Amino acid sequence: MPIVILCALLSQASCTPKNSNQSNAGNSSSADKSLGAAVDPARARVFLEQGKELYKKDEDQQAAEAFQKAINLDPSLAEAHFRLGLAYDALDQKHEAEDAYKKAIEPYKKYLSANPKDAEGFYNLGQTYAGEEAKEGVKRIKTGKEYAEDQLKKKQDEEKKKQQQEQNPPGSTPSES
After folding, report:
1. Structure pTM?
2. Vertex 19, ends 18 and 25: CA angle to 5°?
3. Number of H helices, E strands in the chain
4. What is the distance of C-alpha 173 from the center of its chain?
5. In whole angstroms, what is the distance from residue 134 CA to residue 142 CA?
6. Rounded (5°) CA angle 75-30-38
7. At what angle do helices 78-90 and 60-73 cross, to 10 degrees?
8. Nearest residue to 72 (alpha-carbon basis) of 103, 33, 98
9. Which of 101, 130, 140, 154 is the most exposed place for a label (fewest CB within 10 A)?
């Protein structure tokens, strides 16, 4: 009889860690999610670049996984959302691609408001809209290009004005060019 009780206790004890591990596995996924919530832009960039290389090699599934890891590490990384959409398009997962493109729009707008001279960012936003709606994409590409050209012209004008001021200090007559 004591052997039966001992066996029953041992079998329960050996089951407890498994149950504990299973509940911890459930908790670990939520822990992983909370760890994923910690933003790590540097690691996100590494996964983004890795995904871009995989995408170039037509390893679209692995690229999509890398882009998703980048997004998990930095949800505001607009390019990762955009490129995830491209990878899903290549995998013929149109619904997932559309969702990824939609999720890229707001981060791109926020990024571009802080980085208005990033022509590639405007281009990618236009491409994101193209993935979403071709007509809107073309409009955004043109707007981005026009904005970049305007900013370049303003900068050139400011530099030219500064050079003229340096060549013609106040009180001297400007020389004709």
Report:
1. 0.55
2. 85
3. 7, 0
4. 53
5. 12
6. 35
7. 160
8. 33
9. 154
Would you give per-residue pLDDT tens digits along the chain (177 residues)? 444 443 433 333 333 333 333 333 333 333 344 444 588 999 999 999 999 999 999 999 999 999 999 999 999 999 999 999 999 989 989 889 889 999 999 999 999 999 999 998 999 898 888 776 544 554 566 677 777 888 888 899 999 998 888 888 766 665 554
Task: Locate 140 and state its tokens.
Answer: 């955004």
Q: Which two tokens stand for residue 52?
A: 């871009």
The secondary structure of residue 57, as a DSSP letter, is T
Q: State the amino acid at position 135 in one-letter form.
A: K
Amino acid at 93: Q
